[in-house]
Specification:
The protein is of the alpha/beta class and 301 residues long. The chain is 35% helix and 20% strand. It folds into 2 domains: 142 residues, 3-Layer(aba) Sandwich (Peroxisomal Thiolase, Chain A, domain 1); 150 residues, Thiolase/Chalcone synthase (Peroxisomal Thiolase, Chain A, domain 1, 3-Layer(aba) Sandwich). It has a 4-stranded mixed β-sheet with strand order 2-1-3-4, with helices on both faces. Helix 2 packs across helix 3 and helix 7 packs parallel to helix 8. The chain is globular and about 55 Å long. The mean pLDDT is 97. The structure holds acetyl coenzyme *A. Acetyl coenzyme *A binds next to helix 1, helix 5 and helix 7.
């Protein structure tokens, strides 16, 4: 479809394969499957949920919220349900928000889902983006902790000065969808990858330093690092700067590509299922994405 090669993609990004949703699948379909699995593992029934939060930049439609569509599919009660848009940082933003509702005592059981059908907003004629992005979803059930497992610290950041570096120009209220916008392919994602690359490394390193400082941990206390999966070179640069070894890093972009908000959620699930996460382990989760947004979280499993 475009002038590229497996060699360029593997060496410049680390991506070897990825998953693409079917023509009839939208973000809520992926979110539903991830939610059912998360509820099963947590031994929680949908009717026990107090809130549903879906982090996505590829909602089924502009509105109603994919969170509401998911609420109906899950047959959950008439609880709070909404979407959160923080691009690749969506899952960590979602966990942080859910954690606050639990910490204040307002809610007990919260479903945080990160679901992306990025293949639907990729321009398959643009080699700068079409080789990178993929589809997937992950979900987590949050509840007050009965032991030491908890979110120890989290840090969220954003810089709207970089808003033009990645996004979908048309289809919102600034540039409503029209024949012209479609002809100009403005309903697809545009990205200045090179500029984002440098900002990603800097922002992720800073976010890690702040979350470590907030938790009073050193990088040596971290058992597993789950970074956002945009590019292996970004991950390697971050890891080198913060002084971690690559054997403590969770990588799934080789199999899954960049799934934006879903990347960390899916990588966490894979790490748990592979037995890489033990009770009491300290996990560091760090992301960077469109907005610009970034986030870093330390949790005890
Ligand atoms: N195949 C072959 N050549 C390509 C391809 C491709 N798929 N894509 C770009 N190129 C070319 C470019 O056209 C350019 O050619 P030129 O020098 O003749 O102009 C050359 O490769 C180098 O391009 P760069 O953009 O400098 O390549 P770079 O090494 O920076 O890699 C990449 C590009 C992979 C996008 C990298 O910059 C990156 O990963 N950036 C970060 C992306 C990111 O973090 N995004 C997060 C936000 S995503 C979100 O929020 C949804």
């Amino acid at each position: 479809m475009v002038d590229t090669s497996d060699e360029w993609i593997s060496t410049r990004t680390g991506i070897k394969e990825r998953r693409i949703a079917g023509d009839d699948e939208a973000a809520s379909d992926l979110a539903y499957r991830a939610s059912i699995e998360a509820l099963r593992v947590a031994k929680v029934e949908p009717e026990e949920l107090d809130m549903i939060l879906v982090a996505t930049i590829t909602p089924d439609m502009i509105f109603p919220a994919t969170g509401c569509i998911l609420q109906k599919r899950l047959k959950a009660k008439k609880i709070a349900a909404f979407d959160l848009e923080a691009a690749c940082s969506g899952f960590l933003y979602g966990l942080t928000i859910g954690n606050q509702f639990i910490a204040t005592g307002m809610y007990d059981t919260i479903l945080v889902v990160a679901a992306e059908a990025l293949s639907k907003i990729i321009d398959w004629q643009d080699r700068n983006t079409c080789v990178l992005f993929a589809d997937g979803a992950g979900a987590a059930v949050l509840r007050p902790s009965e032991d030491s497992s908890c979110i120890i610290s989290s840090y969220l950041g954003a810089d709207g000065e970089g808003a033009d570096l990645v996004g979908v120009p048309a289809g919102g209220s600034r540039l409503p969808a029209s024949f012209e916008t479609v002809k100009r392919r403005q309903h697809y994602m545009k990205m200045k990858g090179n500029e984002l690359f440098k900002k990603a490394v800097k922002a992720m390193v800073k976010a890690i330093e702040i979350s470590l400082e907030k938790s009073k941990f050193s990088i040596h206390d971290i058992d597993l690092f789950i970074p956002h999966q945009a590019n292996i070179r970004i991950i390697e640069a971050v890891v080198k700067r913060v002084g971690l070894s690559m054997d403590k890093v969770c990588i799934n972009l080789d199999q899954c590509g960049n799934m934006s908000a879903a990347s960390i959620a899916v990588a966490l699930d894979q790490a748990v299922k592979k037995g890489r996460v033990k009770k009491g382990d300290k996990l560091l989760l760090t992301s960077f994405g469109g907005g610009l947004t970034w986030a870093s979280m330390i949790l005890e499993w």
